[in-house]
Specification:
heterodimer, A: alpha+beta, 11 helices, 8 strands, about 65% helix, globular, B: about 425 residues, MetI-like fold, 2 domains
């Protein structure tokens, strides 16, 4: 009995403390909002947003609602995170492997790369790329083409856009190819377990991925045209590129800074993962007669990935959260559009900051849940 | 590739080394002369070949040098460290050539063509960097808009706080048991009082300087220092809470930690500047800087808690069992047995958290506090000093890099030290 009370008291105190804080905040918020004539509610989401965004993936203009502005801004955030994750993974894996190279120069260059980009605050790096490096680019009229058809100018990076005919046929072919690859993989695994035969799954997959979409061009009536960016003169000295897709400098600066910064952390994860595999594994695999490719694919990588993936996902999550720094250089991401412009216009501080935080929280927690599930799945099951 | 090239080799290893080193030095000489003196000695070759000539020559040279054992130390070292295979040789050459190509422009921009004399924009006549700009704005970058004649107050406050931090080292043996008490409770309070009265003034005959004037690198230090000393005790409580077997305490801690870890700092700062005033009583005014420090402390405490929890988990169970078998209660066990050991384990982790904190502080610029990134933005848009964004950001990057690199090396060394001690 005595023991029970002893356990109950701290719990009751904790809950009381939490309730008190929340109660205090709620009452104050109510009083403050009454005084300022603001009412609490999410009705504003349906109102006309009446502000413009420089760069959007979906159609958006000032007449759309705040809710739609939220969706468009969220997509912009996800776009930056997606591009950043791809580039930081590529860079990170290369640098991580390079740090273990037997070549003295490569090893040290990689180490200095990591030390350099890791120890400068991300915000300064973004500012550097946006305000200093990208401002040194040429004006549209003097820009030299990169790869013949793309133009890197001070106003952004202009790339050709694709114009599809019968896009859905092409997409369904692509999906069909992916589905059949999954089935072939399953079949190949069964075949190997039953009869010990190995199918060249990798080559079959690549073949399918190329042939099926190609067939859609030849038979399915799919057509692909490119719209090239063309220089156009607006006034005596003002030029602009028209057509194609324009990637704004804000996006470029963000993606470059985010991927350079995060790649250093990914590189460390990759290095730790590869170093975490004991040498005996490699030697044992070699002694059962596997060739170097098989050793890497069947013995080293599965084990290294188990060490690499959890911390790397954490870094991806950090990158997504760091992408909110976009607000500092006016890239229209969730924070700038919603917690900045929309908040200024509506004055609904609690609702808007709450929604913004909840959005990031949802992304983080769902990825964390996915990670836990994955960790459980790849856990070494001891009998 | 290897086979076809080895056919060219002569049978005599010494001849191979001579030929190889001649070709290699020719390649390096070509790039060196071209990048330092702008002399293209291979201009007679057609277009692309001219560009790739040093690479090809150097590659052949390295493959001549490559051999199992030569007996010459330098050659063996080269073979072992930078020339073990064709692929490595190619990368080696690319790195050497990139460095050679990058040095002259970087050197001329940073040093040779740069200006540092004078104190107006007109003094910058060279094509290189304008360090005059940094020189003129240096005090602003360090102290923000804090009045020039009062800078000694910031300096002396920092010196005092750092000196007090080292006091713990000189504690006598019989005072050692109060060390934790000193660092966790007494030191933060004293440091807070020093910084509050010395930097903001308003008492003891010191002129009041409002927090709006604080800025530059010193503000970065003030914010990160306060956040660290405040988030540490909070993180400790949360870590204990998360490991508690009382469900209410445990889940409240988990919710707190996961909430703050799930949101970006920038939204937390927005919260502190627009949402937080709504939650406070009407006539209660709280300074913006204080609000920001509270927000970052609450945010960072969650990360701190996870680090401390790692330390608590790393302690062997026997420690808990032994303490319990001596009849110690929960608090007695933690204060005298568990925490002293666990906290020692987490010092490197805390150092890393502090490093992340220092790197995060430039963000307070977003809510209008002018620390170094904010001062740079201010200086950049000053009509008298337009067009020096590059110099400003490079300067800030160098300063931050030195601080963060030193800290990361320090925490790495601590980690190695504790690893071997255990």
């Amino acid at each position: 009995m005595n023991n029970k009370i002893k356990k109950l008291i701290p719990q009751i105190l904790t809950i009381l403390f939490v309730i008190l804080i929340f109660g205090f905040f709620t009452i104050n918020a109510q009083v403050n909002m009454d005084n300022r004539g603001i009412d609490f509610g999410f009705g504003f989401l349906k109102q006309e947003a009446s502000f413009d965004m420089q760069f959007t993936l979906l159609d958006y203009d000032g007449q759309d609602s705040y809710a739609w502005a939220y969706v468009v801004a969220l997509l912009n955030t996800l776009l930056v995170s997606f591009l950043g994750i791809i580039f930081c993974t590529i860079l990170g894996v290369i640098i991580g492997v390079a740090r273990l190279s037997q070549n003295f120069l490569i090893r040290n260059s990689a180490a200095w790369y990591v030390e350099f980009f890791r120890n400068i605050p991300l915000l300064l790096q973004i500012f550097f790329w946006y305000y200093a490096a990208l401002r040194a680019l040429p004006l549209p009229e003097t820009a030299e083409p990169w790869f013949g058809v793309t133009y890197m100018t001070i106003k952004g990076y202009y790339i050709p856009s694709m114009i599809w005919e019968n896009l859905n046929v092409f997409l369904s072919c692509l999906i069909a190819a992916i589905v059949s690859i999954i089935f072939i993989r399953i079949y190949a695994r069964k075949l190997q377990e039953r009869e010990g035969k190995q199918l060249p799954v990798f080559y079959i997959s690549i073949g399918l991925l190329i042939i099926l979409p190609l067939l859609s061009f030849l038979i399915g009536g799919v057509k692909l045209d490119f719209e090239l960016p063309v220089l156009k003169q607006l006034a005596q000295t003002s030029f602009i590129f028209e057509g194609g897709i324009a990637l704004p400098p804000e996006l470029i600066a963000l993606v470059v800074a985010l991927s350079l910064y995060t790649s250093t952390f990914v590189a460390e994860c990759v290095r730790a993962g590869i170093q975490g595999i004991s040498k005996g594994q490699k030697e044992a695999a070699a002694s059962v007669g596997l060739n170097p490719n098989q050793i890497l694919k069947l013995v080293i990588m599965p084990q290294a990935l188990r060490i690499i993936i959890p911390p790397t996902t954490n870094q991806y999550l950090n990158l997504t959260k760091n992408s909110s720094l976009a607000a500092a250089i006016a890239y229209p991401d969730l924070v700038l559009v919603f917690a900045g412009t929309a908040l200024m216009q509506t004055g609904k501080a609690i609702e808007i900051v709450g929604i913004t935080m909840l959005t990031y929280l949802t992304i983080s927690l769902s990825i964390a849940a996915l990670m836990n599930w994955y960790n459980k799945r790849i856990e070494i099951k001891e009998k | 590739m290897n086979i076809s090239l080895s056919k060219i080799k002569t049978s005599n290893p010494i001849t191979n080394i001579y030929i190889g080193s001649f070709l290699l030095s020719l390649a390096i000489f070509d790039v060196f002369v071209y990048s330092f003196f702008d002399l293209n000695i291979t201009s007679f070759l057609p277009g692309n070949l001219n560009l790739f000539f040093p690479l090809i020559i150097g590659f052949i040279g390295l493959s001549f040098i490559r051999m199992e054992y030569s007996g010459i130390k330098l050659v063996d070292n080269i073979n072992k460290h930078i020339n073990p295979s064709n692929f490595n040789a190619l990368l080696t050459l690319l790195i050497i050539f990139t460095i050679l190509k990058a040095i002259p422009p970087a050197l001329s921009w940073m040093v040779l063509d740069a200006n540092i004399s004078g104190d107006t924009k007109a003094a910058c006549t060279g094509t290189g960097a304008c360090w005059t700009y940094i020189k003129v704005w240096f005090k602003r970058f360090m102290y923000g808009m804090y009045p020039n004649e009062l800078h000694w107050r910031i300096n002396s406050a920092f010196i005092l706080v750092i000196a007090l931090g080292f006091v713990g080292y000189f504690f006598k043996e019989n005072l050692k048991k109060y060390l934790a008490l000193y660092y966790v409770v007494i030191y933060p309070i004293i440091a807070f009082l020093i910084i509050y009265y010395l930097i903001s003034g308003g008492a003891f005959g010191l002129v009041w300087v409002e927090t709006g004037a604080w800025g530059g690198l010193s503000l970065t230090f003030i914010v990160s220092f306060f956040c660290l000393i405040f988030c540490f005790p909070l993180g400790m409580i949360l870590a204990l809470g998360r490991r508690s077997n009382l469900p209410a305490v445990k889940y409240v801690s988990i919710c707190y930690i996961e909430f703050w870890r799930g949101v970006p700092l920038i939204t937390v700062l927005f919260m502190s500047s627009v949402m937080f005033p709504m939650f406070l009583p009407e006539d209660f005014f709280m300074d913006k800087l204080v609000r920001v420090i509270i927000a970052i402390t609450l945010f960072e405490a969650a990360y701190c808690a996870e680090v401390i929890r790692g330390g608590l988990q790393a302690l062997p169970r026997g420690q808990y069992d032994a303490a319990k078998s001596l009849g110690m209660g929960y608090w007695k066990m933690h204060i005298f047995v568990i925490l002293p050991q666990a906290l020692k384990l987490v010092i490197p982790g805390i150092a890393n958290t502090f490093l992340a904190l220092v790197k995060d502080t430039p963000l307070i610029f977003v809510v209008g506090l002018a620390e170094i990134a904010g001062m740079l933005a201010l200086a950049k848009t000053n009509p008298k000093w337009l067009g020096f964004a590059m110099e400003g950001y490079i300067f800030a990057a160098i300063i931050f890099w030195i601080i963060c690199y030193a800290m990361s090396k320090y925490s790495y060394n601590l980690e190695q030290k504790y690893k071997t001690e255990r």
